[in-house]
Amino acid sequence: MSTGKAPGKLYLAGEYAVVETGFPAVLTSVNKYVTVTINKSQNGGTIQSKNLNKELIHWNRQGTELVFDDSESQLQYILAAIKFIEKYALERGVKLSYYDLLVTSELDSEDGKKYGLGSSAAVTVAVVKTLGDFYNLNLSAMDIYKISAISHLSVQGNGSLGDIAASAFGGIVAYYSPDRNWIFNMIRNHSITEILSLDWPELQIETLDLPDDLELTVGWTGSPASTSILVDRIALTKAQKVAKYQNFLHASRNNVENLIKGFKTNNSTLIKEMLSKYRTLLADLADFSDVHIETELLEKLCNIAEKLGGSAKTSGAGGGDCGIVLSDKTLDIDELKKEWRKVGITPLTLKIGEVIAHA
After folding, report:
1. 19 touches 317 (CB < 8 A)
2. Does domain 2-208 have CATH number 3.40.50.2020?
3. How many CB atoms are located within 10 Å of the residue 70 CB?
4. Is the dihedral of CA 44, 84, 356, 118 positive or negative?
5. pTM > 0.85
6. pLDDT value of residue 319
7. CATH architecture group of domain 214-348
8. Quick check: 297 and 344 in contact, CB under 8 A?
9. What are the sequence ranges of the domains in the chain?
């Protein structure tokens, strides 16, 4: 039996800009996980994801390809991860097996509502990591990131892949997004082994440490956001309002690189200042794009935290989901949570996830 897990994520800063090649973001993994368990089987296997799809999916092989009895399943990220990790296993001369694969997730609420913690990325990473162990492939965190990124892109077709980095490396990561067009071209023309061996253009991943005097608090608005719709609307703005969008990108890069510097120099004041400034940058972006990033509840979440002395902003695409607060440990967290609950915001029991590997 092989078991592996991958954490969910939250953006600290760099949202929207990070979809552009080579632009930075800072993300944190969280202490909620997707777990994958694989048991060897004979003459056929099953896939079950208790969160994504209640049905047990039966599969078999035709040659090296997996064949399913349910082509309409919700498990496309799992299937993509299996496809590319097994392609790599074959390149390494490993004989493929049958197995039963079970996915369990802590990333959604009890009644199935999404918190916005990057569940599809964590599922992809957990499958790649666990199958890598199952086939004794000895994958590094960067290998796991790259195979998961390829798998995720094959399903989604776009995205910064920052959530993949946070899930593969754990802890807090400074992340510069790679050239996705280059990745697509490589997938078409090269083996997985070759793609793993190359430095990907613009990609950088580095683990960071939170200063001891800071803590992260997360609130949830109760309404999920549609990241893809919001990002598509911003892409339309990018074409229509070129100068304003370029100004946003320039300001975002400066802000995030200063934030990274704050982490590297253990400068809590700089970290909090840059987090608050990024809230302003997102407000400007929302204003000239006519996109609703900071909803009424997210605005209340941030304002309550700032009134008590924290630095706060939306996390990810906005439009719902979570808001984050970085604060000194002198901030009264109980008071913060009490004020949040009064206006209908749910405090989440999230902490920064453990570092899985240093980049």
Report:
1. no
2. no
3. 14
4. negative
5. yes
6. 74
7. 2-Layer Sandwich (3.30)
8. yes
9. 2-208, 214-348
